[in-house]
Structure formats: structure tokens, C-alpha cells
Amino acid sequence: MNVTRFAPSPTGYIHLGNVRSAIYPYLIAKQGKDGRFILRIEDTDQSRYVEGATDLILETLTWLGLDWNEGVKKGGEHGPYYQSERRDIYHAYARKLIRAGRAYADPTPPAEIDKYRKADAAKKIPFLYRNHRPASADTPTTTDDTAWQPGIPLRFKSEPKSVKWHDEVMGDLETGPEVMDDIILIKKDGLPTYNFAHIVDDYEMRVTHIVRGVEYLSSMPNYLAIYEALGIEHPKFVSLPHVLATQGNKKLSKRDGAKSVIDYKDEGVLKEAMLNYLACLGWNDGTEQEIYTKEELIEKFQISRIQSSGARFDEVKLLWQNGQWIRKIFDENGVDELYDRTVSRDEASLKSHEMNPERDSLINFWPASAADYDETYQKQVLSIIYDRLKTLSDLKNYTTYFFEDPRIDLAFLQNNKFIKKLSETEQRDLLSAVIEKLQDETDWSAAHLQDTLNDLLTQTNRKPAELFSLIRIALSYADFSPALHLTMNVLGKDRTLARLNATRSAIVNDL
Ligand code: GLU
Asked: Tell me, what's the pLDDT at 52?
């Protein structure tokens, strides 16, 4: 049975660089029987607390479908799941360490500590607090609980030695005694440090695998010493290498513009694509497969195949994968399912929109003018455009002319590389021939329109690119539109003819 947790601090949004710390433990927990995936909020550093961050974390996990079995908002037998509410639990463990002579109250004022630091820097020796341990740390401790009271920081009393441990991704690791130190367990405000709290919580919550960023590796010797001093077993360690920025050798970080996972949701990336892309960032199953459903990921994910070197973030690949997913959903589940994604009417989205009205995409991805048309028509448009979308927000750019007449722009028309070759008189005559033929059509089905367009080619003796570009632009004034017979079919006969006539008149006026 695997028990894992995602333990974010509510210090801001979840960016792309750290969301694998949620995805991988989720996948691990889902493997095997009765696994549990816990969501714990590590909010003991109140100076870094950001209002609304927890909601954003919950929204991100919910969107990606990383449903937790236990934790914040869900409850469970190991709660509470906000660390700030677990103070008594940490204090009980802290007292255990005091009684064992492995923790001491440290009255040293911060200014004094600063002096030690500067003095060591001047001597060019590494700053280790244990070299400055106050004399009081060595007074024999009693089982008396008055030995330490919150208000004074409590430090671990380290016993420096070499340690060896195994990391599921990084392999066998070893460090010398020089890295062990008297780290703070409980701060002056009575709240624990991350360093101490996570050890207590993971133990109390029966966590079997700690999955977190590689940045915690350097603290491992101290963590191992605390596990040992508490006499508890540690979980397996799964350290995830950094996600690297697209360029250079820097890790992707908020400072360097790493976007929030939720930003991609707002930009029309599907949750399936996001999960797929991120899970495969630094992990593969040894095959060439690139598209995975959540169920396939659960089945195929293996810790042993997580890469130990950094994985590079590539937005182009993410968007490519999103395009694949848009097609997959349409092809497998039909237009209704894909349509639902373009109008995010789920409660969570509406609520988030209410809190954050500028996130319009939470309501829908269509151009505003689409609101004048019914769902059936919007679905017809979607059915002919979906295979060109990279994100759902492309709908705004690609479909406006289905909902409103485009502005006639003769310069745009005549700059087209195929239309350029025709004189304005030729353009006019060609449009006249098209209009005349289409006027008589009684069958406006896509299949019949295809035949009609072919007849027009023969009749006018023009190259397809010339004739079709002319019609296409007169109908859309867009850089791209779906196959002509499909576009005409969806626009309908009246609008098609009206637009062709409008362009023809504009050319005539220009002559
Ligand atoms: N609260 C830590 C963070 O947000 C979590 C690290 C861990 O998973 O243990 O980085």
C-alpha cells in the first residue's frame, strides 16, 4: 500500500516547475491496493503566506484530476491537515527530543548569531551553528517539561557523523559529518520549521514515499539524524530533478517567468494534455508512446524510470500535445464533449471566475459574438475547426467570421500570393461566375458543395489555389479557414452569397 502526499506551502501559485511533486505521488498512491494520496498545507512560515494561494492550489489539483483521498477539505484520520493547526503534535515530538537530550532551547539573540556568521566568513570557515552552541545546551536535561517553553527557538542537538542513504531517483548517497548541524526545530513563534514538521507529519500520516524536489537533498543528513533521534523509520525518498527553463541551464522558476499551471488552463490547455505533458517531463516508460491518459499513466508509471537529470520545459511540445488531445477527445467522445470544454460551466470554474473576473476563459473560449448563436451552430463550427486548434483560446482567432461579417479589406485580399496574379477585372468576373453558380444551388450539403466547387474549377479554367483563395478570403478575411465546402456549408447559402457579393461590389467600386 502506497501512501504519498503533496505538501505545498501557500506562498503563491503552483508553477510548472513544481507540479510534478503532486503528479508523481498521485500516480504512486494509485498503484497497488488501498493507496492514499494526502494533501497537506505547509503553512508554518507565516511571513510567506499569500492570501488565496490555498484556493489556487486546490483549483490546480482539482483541474488536473489529482483527487486526494485525505487532507484539506476532505478530512481523514490523520488530520488536521494544515500544519498551523498541528502545533501540539509538533510540541509533543519536540519534548521527546528534549527528554532524549537531542534538542535544546536556544536563547541566543539573532544579532549574536549574525556575529558568529560574519566571524566564520572572515575566517573563511563554513558557518555551522553547532560550533557556537550556547553553554546551556549542555545542561543535563530532565524529563521536566518546563525545560523549554515556546517563545524561545528550539534547536536540534546534532551529533555529527557520516551518513549513507538511498534515494529512489538519485541512487546511493553519502555525506560526511561536516554537513550536519543544529537546525531549528521550533521557531520563536512556537511553530515548527519545515525541516521538523514534515518529518513528524509524514510519520504520523504513515507516508511511505516522500516525493519532492531535489533542492531538499542537501538537508537530508539533518533529516536522517532527526529520524534517528526520534527512533522512527523514514519513508522512501524520491527526489525529483529540476525542470529546466526552455533555454540555458537554469531551473524553471517563478523569478524567470515560470507560469502558473492555472494560466495554461485559462489559455485553453486541456487538463489531460497538461497532465500528460508534465508526467512525461523527465519520465518515460521506455517506449515511443507520447499520449497517455491518466489511467495509462497510473498503470505505466515507474519511479525507477524517472530521469535523474533535469528535464527541459518546452512549451511548443506542450501545445502540440494539447492539439493532439483536442483531436483525441473529439474523435473518441464526439463534439459534445469537446464543446463542453470550450464553455467551462463547471462549478469550480464559475466560482473562480467570480473571485477573479478577469479570468474570462473560465466562462468560455468563444468570441463574444458567438453568444448570438445557439449551441447547435457553435458545435457545427467546432466540428470543422477543431483539428486546427492548438489551444481552446485559438477559437477566438479562428472562428470570429462564423459569427459576424468580416470587415472587407481589399488590400488583404489582393496581397494574397495567388490573387495577386489576377487583375481586379478578373477577380470581379471570377466572383460573378461563382455567385451565379451558387445562386442556383438548392442542395447546400458539404458533399454537394464540394462537387459544385470542382465544377467551377472546370468552368472557369482557374487553378484551385486562385479560385479557392478568392472565395475563401471573401468569406472570412482570415489567414486560415477550414476546407471551403465545409466553411460554406456552415455559413449557409444566404451568408455565403451576401459576403461574395459584398466583396464583388467593393472590387467594382475600386475599378
Ligand atoms: N512545503 C514544501 C514546499 O512547498 C514541501 C516539500 C515537501 O514535499 O516535503 O516546497
From this structure: 87
